[in-house]
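Posting for a labmate who doesn't have an account.
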Amino acid sequence: MRTLVLWDIDLTLVDYSGVGRRWYEDALATVVGVPLKRLPSFPGRTERSLAREFLATHGFEHTDERVEQFFAALTELAEQDRPSLPTLGRALAGAAEILADLAGRENVVQSLVTGNLPLLANYKLAAFDLHHHIDFEIGGYGSLSEHRHDLVGAAISQATAKHDEFDSVVVIGDTPHDVAAGLHHGTTTVGVATGRFTVTELAESGAHVTLTDLADTPAVARALLP
């Protein structure tokens, strides 16, 4: 049975708490020259959704051109911070082990459904050497849409085009947004309570499986693979 596993990044595989706020605050100053007045909720959101809200909240039109300028500013900030990322965050317990375990299975392909821009996704994982087992070409990224379910659809379409049909698709994340996006496409959804939502909250959002964390590699592998 061939399985496509689609990972969220922030607070599922890695924790860069506080970095996103600083990047967005600096990007806002770069693009429109104003200080941060209000911080929207980040968990489960896409970069396109956040950029539009940051601009609108501070009184600016969120045109596609301005959103792309926001993306360019975020990318430049990530480039500047890239050497320091290993000290600005941490890999979550079990992340490296489960990625390696699944990579060793012949019928498993791993990619991403993440609110991050593609380059930021790569940098965040590479900082802890977690990028080797991920196929970045077929991921769903936050530059695509304000709606997370569009990212899941894009990832599945690209994965199918590259690797042919899959018998099972599994979406893993730490927020109800991740769960809802997976359910929208009929995937198996796994909620991991390593972020701001509890096991109970993730179960109530509809997750087929809930985990406290990724630390027990055999248990996580059983949860992800049919």
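Reply:
Got it, the structure tokens are right above this. The CA atoms of residues 52 and 63 lie 8 Å apart.
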